[in-house]
């Protein structure tokens, strides 16, 4: 399952699932991609199909392993990953080093176990209001699900996950 970033940072007001779908298509990727975000309808932990959560590794755009499987992201350790394995955007840039993402922080709106935090997900990702809050994770911590709260007016990284594997 590929974990890929959108080609530019976003505030808390985003149509992330649509952008993930659109940018994956433009990059020539044929699988379905969903935002790596909890939403008003779904917890982050359940975005990937149940049949694909245990046996497929989570990899970057170049196939390098970030996690042994989807479930291992939500074991309570905050989604610890190897910071030496880059995360790429759909257009192939390393989000950890590219200046297009000045703040190396990802939106997620979830607990460390991937459950939605309705108080901290930018009103279901529909507001960039400075007073609204969103749960996010500074990537320098080496965790995708670190528990930090930021104003929804911030422009942070949005990740997309291939939510169903097509062989």
From TrEMBL:
Pfam families reported for this sequence: Endostatin
CDD domains, per the entry: Endostatin-like
InterPro entries noted in UniProt: C-type_lectin-like/link_sf, Collagenase_NC10/endostatin, CTDL_fold
Ranges where the Collagenase NC10/endostatin domain occurs: 1-166
The protein's name: COFA1 protein
Organism of derivation: Zapornia atra (Henderson crake)
Gene from which this protein is expressed: Col15a1_1
